[in-house]
Amino acid sequence: MRIRPAVPAALTLCLLAALSASAADQAAGEKKSGVAVDAAVGTAPGKGVAAATMKTTAMIVAIDAAKRDVTLKRQDGKVIVIALSEDVRNFDQLKVGDKVHVEYGQALALELKKNGGGTPALTSGDAMKRSEPGQKPGGTATRQVAVLADVVAVDTKHKIVSLKGPGGNIVEMVVDDPEQLKNIKKGDQVQALYTEALAIKVEAASK
To answer: In whole angstroms, what is the distance from residue 97 CA to residue 170 CA?
Structure first.
């Protein structure tokens, strides 16, 4: 299941892609790009929680107002050009030397519902706040998605639990913990809550 941030694409997905290190670099613990990643996982009988937060900063080194292009320099020295659409409020407030701070977080909580009984369902909600007129571009956005799915099969040999969602689609979930796996049976249900949050702040250049 893919979930996209509920914020203007030009100021979110572009910034995240432009400012982030590659996934391979992050996995290897590279800090050259100035990306800080914090992750945590916790489990309890019938429950599991995973969360991760990414923070990064870059500096504006050039602005093409006619094309609405902004050139950013990452902390590792790499230069990236991104195009900001008309959705980005207060473009004229951007200045060379400004710093762009991005913080992106994801969290997933799973809870086993023994013996089921509920109706599979999916609900979601979005919240967004953009900068006020006259301020530097930026803002915050959050999204939550809740899913209740049926356990339709448990493959203990391969450690796979098959879940059937409200749309009838089947998703296979790998459960490595043998204590958790043996507690899951066909006919149970799994409640999942996915939360995504994004904050972008532009800091004025030092005088």
So the answer is: 50
Torsion angles phi and psi, residue 34, rounded to 5? 80, 15
- Record the pTM: 0.71
Q: Which amino acid is at 207?
A: K
- Which long-range contacts link 172-181 to residues 24+ away (Cβ below 8 Å)? 177/43, 179/45, 180/43, 180/45, 180/46, 180/48, 181/154, 181/156
Map out the domains of the chain as residue ranges. 9-203
In terms of Cβ atoms closer than 10 Å to its own Cβ (0-12, 13-18, 19+), residue 144 is middle
Over its C-alpha atoms, the chain yields an Rg (Å, rounded) of 21
Q: Which positions ≥6 away from 187 have C-beta within 8 Å?
A: 115, 116, 150, 151
* Parts of the chain with a pLDDT under 70: 1-34, 207
CA nearest to 7, candidates 193, 145, 138 = 138
For residues 144 and 132, give the distance between their C-alpha atoms in angstroms, rounded to a whole number.
24
